[in-house]
Amino acid sequence: MSLGQQLAPHLPFLRRYARALTGGQAQGDSYVKATLEAIVAAPEQFPTDVEPRLGLYRTFQAIWTSVNLDGDIEATGQSNAATIAQARLARMTPLSRQALLLTAMEGFSPEEAAFLIESDVDEVERLVEQAMNDIEEQTRAEVLIIEDEPIIAMDIETIVRDLGHEVTGVAVTRDEAVSLAKAQRPGLVLADIQLADDSSGIDAVKDILAEFSVPVIFITAFPERLLTGERPEPTFLITKPFQRSTVKAAISQALFFDQATVPAV
Asked: What's one Pfam family here (predicted)?
């Protein structure tokens, strides 16, 4: 099996990580593209003593820490998320955010994350705790949950409230989601894909976004279906079944990059 074939299944998830780290599709994908270009240019430098996924993320980390692609994105007018988050980024070391996303969202163990950021396990655990504390202190919002499974909805609601946010409502259909959003404008939307009446959470989100701008986190058992590169894609994606830490990390990152919640400086 060629190196390209080994890496292909992991690319949708690397793209998820990159956009969560940068706050946008265009910026995140630019770093993934640079990573792949580096691998193609020097395949002999790709790590062979670890599994392909670890090698891919390790190569990405090298690009992330050594190359500044913000200027290229800014030239196309698509760096708004990075600009929005500037005040918060000044308060938080990038390494702590990487440690949080690698463990909580991407599912790497502390040992694997330590390998990826060239650190040790104790430092990774300290960085994750620091990142969660920093982000939670800076973000508060009212959250709309779109989820038709009662137990999952209750679990998400508990997580949201534990983070200090308010829940504006829980919708189980597309029409109910739009109605709740119009009645009380949320600062964040958590949306399942398949809803109770066979309507689509994606369509519900499109209807809401037609009314006003709000950060959205999609919840799905098939994230690769939304990360195809063929259309505008969600910046934040949670894979079912999810861990509570994953939901917390995604909520914190989504609000971290949202203009409406930038604190005064």
From this structure: PhyR_sigma-like
CA distance 153 to 171: 9
Contact by Cβ (8 Å): 180, 146: no
Q: Distance between CA atoms of 28 and 72, rounded to whole angstroms?
A: 12
Q: What is the pLDDT of residue 7?
A: 95
Comparing 18-22, 182-186, 230-234, which segment has the lowest mean pLDDT? 230-234
Give the β-pairing of 236-239 and 216-220. Answer: parallel
Question: Could you give the strand order of the β-sheet that contains 236-239, starting from the edge strand earlier in sequence?
Answer: 166-171, 142-146, 188-192, 216-220, 236-239
CATH topology classification for 1-84: Rna Polymerase Sigma Factor; Chain: A (1.10.1740)
Q: Report domain extents, the chain.
A: 1-84, 92-138, 140-244+252-261
Q: Is 193 helix (H, G, I), strand (E, B) or coil?
A: coil
Q: Which amino acid is at 173?
A: T
